[in-house]
Amino acid sequence: FLWTLRNIGDSHAAMSAGSSESTKDKILQSNVSKYFSDPQCYFQVNGQYVRNKLKVILFPFLHRGHWTRITEPIGGRLSYKPPAFDINALDLYIPLMSFGIYVVLAGFTLGLIGKFSLEALSLQFTKGLFGWFLQVLLLKVSLYSLGSGEAPLLNIVAYAGYAFTGMCVAVKGRNM
């Protein structure tokens, strides 16, 4: 009889531990998704999206569409469409590629003036990352001071990273 009570108690404890684990997972997932959204969706791009998004970034006054994101119902709630299907969606592909191209162009510029070295290139890389971090920090503080600080961090990183696209054009223009 005691063995049965003990098994019932153990199974009840296991069930409650399992439910608390799933509750913990749900709480963790909701808190993580508040600050970090799914990073995979930031890289769902295609060639047409990249061309059109670069036009919007570099020449925003030529954009003839709406500026709001397109939503679609998924599982009973509204979700944003991925970047491949929405020109206004945020992506991390363009900021990361722009940052890489910026570092390469900075190295090319250093080579043109005869000051290229790995140390100088790593300094440009570090300065670029530090500038990106400062932009993210400034945007986060600005949003927080305006009372809207709950934007996902990857969205802010994407917005700040779009600046490297214009910087690439400026560095390329300077080299000509």
From TrEMBL:
Keyword Cell wall biogenesis/degradation listed: no
InterPro entries in the cross-refs: Yif1_fam
Example of a GO cellular component annotation carried by this entry: COPII-coated ER to Golgi transport vesicle
Keyword Heme found: no
Keywords: Endoplasmic reticulum, Golgi apparatus, Membrane, Protein transport, Transmembrane, Transmembrane helix, Transport
GO biological process: endoplasmic reticulum to Golgi vesicle-mediated transport; protein transport
Residues passing through the membrane, by range: 92-113, 125-147, 153-171
Cellular location(s): Endoplasmic reticulum membrane; Golgi apparatus membrane
Top-level taxonomic group: Eukaryota
Membrane topology field: Multi-pass membrane protein
Family to which this protein belongs: Belongs to the YIF1 family.
Protein name stated in the entry: Uncharacterized protein
